[in-house]
Amino acid sequence: MAMSFVAKYPDRVEIIPELIETAIEELDHFQQVYAHMARRGVRLAKEMSEDPYIKALLELCRTDPLNRFLDRLLLASIIECRGAERFRLVCNAIQDDAGLKEFYHRLWTSEAKHGNIFVKMALNYFPEKNVYARLKELNAAEGKIIESLELRAALH
Predict the structure, then answer these.
(1) Nearest partner of 16 among 30, 26, 4, 28, judged by Cα
(2) CB neighbours of residue 55 within 10 Å
(3) pLDDT tens digits, residue range 28-61?
(4) What single string gives the DSSP state of each residue in the chain?
(5) CB neighbourhood size of 33 (10 A)
(6) Helix 98-123 crosses helix 128-148 at what angle (to 10 degrees)?
(7) pLDDT at residue 47, rounded to an integer
(8) pLDDT tens digits, residue range 59-111?
(9) What global pTM score does this model have?
(10) Distance, CA of 34 to CA of 48 (rounded, Å)
């Protein structure tokens, strides 16, 4: 997601270094997840199906370029915060594997930080009042999306 912002908004030079840092951290997380999967004999899926949650969120984006930029930043924040919430739930449920529990704790805290980063980035370009008003709208819409989706295994 972070590198998508770099590719789509290369003129937003104020946030590019932090986007790259976030992308590196996310790739490191993927490497760690893959190592845990490999130790357990779990393979990556041959194909990734479209994520109905992400698809529904992206449909909330306004179409004019400036507002689309704001919406994408705020949706990135919402996605990261929801991921943090899920990782926290998994972390708290693990009772018999201290290493795995610690791993999910690290993911949880990192994702929460990423959620804040995207809001902070939005505040570089938009008035605070507008950012938080739109974030409130998108959070309400995201809640309705969550309620409408079929229950499935997903962490992020």
Answers:
(1) 4
(2) 10
(3) 999 999 999 999 999 998 888 889 999 999 999 9
(4) -HHHHHHH-TT-TTTHHHHHHHHHHHHHHHHHHHHHHHHTTPPPPSSPPP-HHHHHHHTTS-SSHHHHHHHHHHHHHHHHHHHHHHHHHHHHH--S-HHHHHHHHHHHHHHHHHHHHHHHHHHTTS-HHHHHHHHHHHHHHHHHHHHHSPP-----
(5) 16
(6) 140
(7) 85
(8) 999 999 999 999 999 999 999 999 999 999 999 999 999 999 999 999 999 99
(9) 0.91
(10) 15
pLDDT at 155: 63
Structure tokens belonging to residue 77: 């924040």
Tell me how crowded residue 127 is: count the other CB atoms within 10 A of its CB: 9
Half-sphere exposure (Cβ direction) of 146: Cα atoms closer than 13 Å: 14
Domains of the chain by range and CATH?
52-148 (1.20.1260.10)
Q: Are 19 and 3 in contact (CB under 8 A)?
A: yes
End-to-end CA distance of the chain: 12
Supply angle C-alpha 16, 107, 147, rounded to 5.
95
